[in-house]
Amino acid sequence: MHKKYFFFISSLLFLCLSDKICAQRYEKNKYNLEIIDNINDYRAEINNNKQAKLTLLTKYVPHLKTDFVYATKHNFTHTVLYKNPKPYAVLPLAEALRKAAAELEARGWGIILYDAYRPYSVTEKMWETEPDARYAADPKFGSGHNRGIAVDIGLYKLSTGKLLKMPTGFDNFTDTAHSDFINLPKTVLTNRQTLKTVMEKYGLKQLSTEWWHFSIPNPGDKYKILNLGFDELNETTKENE
Q1: Alpha-carbon separation of residue 172 from 24, 39, 116, 135 (angstroms)
Q2: Which of 106, 225, 231, 236 has a beta carbon 3.0–4.6 Å from 142's, enabling a disulfide?
Q3: Rounded alpha-carbon distances, angstroms, from residue 130 to 13, 66, 69, 98
Q4: Quick check: helix, strand or coil at residue 170?
């Protein structure tokens, strides 16, 4: 082989291995979005980007309570949207919640989680029921939940397990659930502000139309959209333990 061609091929191989020009490519859906929908592609992705790995929040957030309403029919779609859920999120979000939870614990409060990672197919089903971008993610763009960078949370009192009063219940699609709605009792406004202040202190941003929704701001394309079922993720988590 001619030396200059050997040098070219060697350089190209080096760039591929260094992930500069041979980044993983995934099949695009009808909205031209790259979706990771099998566990092998997911493993390849997190091998290149350790920060994108989904981790169990129970390992980071002490006293975490969960109420996965989407695993029941008691949600706005009146259908079971997923089965066997566990609270998964990417590592930066888990670290932020760990710090927030420590501060809240000092005040006698814990975090209750309603949703974290959810498969992309669930976002599509939600949009069919509630095609309003104020309250449901448009499948044309995907959701922060599909990327593991968003959580839906509230607060409860550690000593009693009782939920702190918030403006509305979870998934309330009215102006009362908006983060700037003020026609509320002082205690409720204080609780909502406490949740927002603590979460934002550790780098998370509240969605303006949902007091319970917090996410990593300005993620760019660092985190891929996932359409992996919980059974797959749970099995993979066991393998890595």
Answers
A1: 39, 34, 17, 9
A2: 225
A3: 48, 24, 16, 32
A4: coil
Domain chopping of the chain, boundaries: 26-240
Residue 49: the pLDDT is: 94
CATH topology of domain 26-240: Muramoyl-pentapeptide Carboxypeptidase; domain 2 (3.30.1380)
**What DSSP string runs through 66-79?**
E--GGGSS-STTSS
Single pTM value for the model: 0.88
* Cβ proximity of 225 and 123 under 8 Å: no
* Residue burial 133-170, b: 16+ Cβ < 10 Å; e: rest: eebbbebeebbbbbbbbbbbbbbbebeeeeebebbbeb
Distance set, CA 208 to CA 12, 27, 212 (Å): 46, 33, 10
**Distance of alpha carbon 152 from alpha carbon 17, whole angstroms:** 38
Structure confidence at residue 235 as a pLDDT band (50, 70, 90): confident
Q: Do residues 87 and 185 touch, judged by C-beta distance below 8 A?
A: no
Q: Is 177 helix (H, G, I), strand (E, B) or coil?
A: helix
Q: Is the pLDDT of residue 11 over 80?
A: no
Q: Which pLDDT score is estimated for 2? A: 54
Is the predicted pLDDT of residue 9 greater than 90, yes or no?
no
Beta strands at 88-90 and 109-115: parallel, antiparallel or unpaired: unpaired
